Fold this sequence. Notes:
Elements: E1 2-6, H1 11-21, E2 28-30, E3 40-47, E4 51-60, E5 63-72, H2 79-95, H3 109-120, H4 122-132, H5 137-155, E6 161-168, E7 170-171, E8 183-184, H6 188-214, E9 218-226, H7 234-247, E10 255-259, H8 268-276, E11 281-283, H9 291-296, H10 303-316, E12 321-327, H11 334-347, E13 351-356, H12 364-367, H13 379-392, E14 395-401, E15 412-417, H14 423-429, E16 434-438, E17 443-447, E18 454-458, H15 463-468, H16 470-476, H17 479-485
Parallel strand pairs: 1-2, 1-3, 6-9, 6-16, 7-8, 9-10, 10-11, 11-12, 12-13
Antiparallel strand pairs: 3-4, 4-5, 13-15, 14-15, 17-18
Helix pairs in contact: 1-2, 3-4, 3-5, 6-7, 7-8, 11-13
Amino acid sequence: xxxxCINHNYTYETEKLLFLFFPFEKNTVLKEFTGxxxxxxxxxxxSTGENVSFCVRLCIDGKTEExxxxxxxxxxxxxEYELLSRAYPLLKNICGFAPKWGMLTGVRPSKLLLNKMESxxxxxxxEYFRHxxxxxxxxxxxxxMVAKIEQPIINNSPKNSFSLYISIPFCPTRCSYxxxxxxxxxxxxxKKLVPEYVEKLCEEIEFTAKKAKENNLQLTTxxxxxxxxxxxxxEQLDTVMTAIENSFDLSACREYTVEAGRPDxxxxxxxxxxxKHGVNRISINPQTFNDSVLKEIGRCHTTALTEEMxxxxxxxxxxxxxxxxxxxxxxxxxxxxxxxxxxxxxLGAENITVHTLALKRSSTLVTENEKDTVTEKNIEAMLDYxxxxxxxxxxxxxxxxxxxxxxxxxxxxxWCKNGKECEYNILMMEEYQHILSVGAGAVTKLLxxxxxxxxxxxxxxxxxxxxxxxxxxxQKKEGISSFFAQYN
Length: 488
């Protein structure tokens, strides 16, 4: 579809809004309009000095609707909102439905609501979501529940605290929906990289610890993500964890999490290594408890193996286990998804994270044109069921975020039993704590004292880049000290 953006630069925002209604369309952004006989969205802003006029026109299958308006050119006029809020009702009318999050496209709705609650009060914050962004009442309720749980954890986080993120960009195989920079360890080229990757990772851990100490930062949580961290051998896990212990002061560390996400990477030996080093939270992620769906998405484990590894982790002493589920997987059904939610609850996982499938451009699900196997019609029902089932089972929604290209513009929600929140997930997602990150694809986030500025330091994405560019990477991370120096 053609998108005409005349006299404004809100092209990204306009595309995001259009995606809510046409997720599978390939769009072309144009800056001039000379006539168009096809489907298009026309947007224009014109200023006369005293006034600003907005014009939006939508043409779909020969049906055309238009929305215009003129406002005084006052300081602080939100031109982006005024433009998009005129496009939204046209899209809603022609398409015949309203997205549950309205025209809200941000990644962190609960953060936006929490900020409004603290600055203007709870009632004003709720009305802001309802009338400015047209958010459905049930989604407002969800965002409110998350914000109330996050609030005390955020407020009690020391300003000089930080979390350490360890990136392990390797997996046994690549899932069809995955767009992360992770390498399948089954290939010889990736397998050869692992020993040197571990060596460089330990060096970066030592370097990063020195930066933390120089700037009087206090480590409160450690989180291993990926990829799949337990793709590493027990010996390699032990090596990296020993480097962390030798480099960082862990005396104030309250959480130590490792994503052992793929059941086919878990062994008793690896679990014992994790326990030895004080890991107190792990993930064992089924994604679904349906073997045919697992096969469809390229997972090499079975439901039986997932449950076997869950019970093995319990026997090894892990009493904080997260399980991820995905709503909208190819060939899954509403009844199948309900069964997966019910089984995760029956197993008694302390955390259950419910994701909405996101059609990422670099995933094989999209690149191999498999998206036709995915439908949106049951996604809402799946999430509605998970909400009711988890609430009734005593779980609470404690963090939430949304991914671009998520089906139905819907959300990912972390649920927990009472008092079992993962602090790292909250502070990282809502960006209320420094995150010092190591490894390929890792992003260090540094927050100004008033949390009004975030500086990011990006590591090289691919393992081979990380290894070959390691010296220049360390030079980039000297920026940690220069960032804090400006506030001393």
